[in-house]
Amino acid sequence: MSSNEYKATARTNYFAVKDITAFEAEIAEICKLSLGFEGYHLKTKKIDGIDTYAILFYTDDGGRVPMQYWTSDNEHRLVDWSDLFSRHLQDDWVAIIMEVGSINHDWLQGFAEAYNNKMETKSVLLSHIFTQAENLGKYITTTEDN
User: Fold this and answer.
1) CB neighbours of 29 closer than 8 A, spacing ≥ 6?
2) Which of 31, 33, 82, 90 could cross-link with 69 by S-S, CB 3.0 to 4.6 Å?
């Protein structure tokens, strides 16, 4: 891999699901069908006596969140994380996916998305800090060296 390629790290927080076997089967299928994905690791942790799980994603360039895949019928599909979590999360649990990445420490990006089992979501992009910082001072530069 050249030093000018995007490299990322991605994972989730810990959350509780209704049926870990069904949830893990769906995550495994998404990772298997997504180009460049080597897989995932499911971490476990007890929180208030409840089994919870976190996903660590692994790709050939680090660890990005799978966003698209090809079905066995060779159809292109986007991963619908909201739908997936709405079907699998236990009530009152929130799953948060986070990814941060860069190209040779020159161009940085990152995002976080939160989901519940009611199809409600929230998202944040790291790049929005530049707009939010506009009233803090006159000189706001980017993280890019070019």
Assistant:
1) none
2) 33
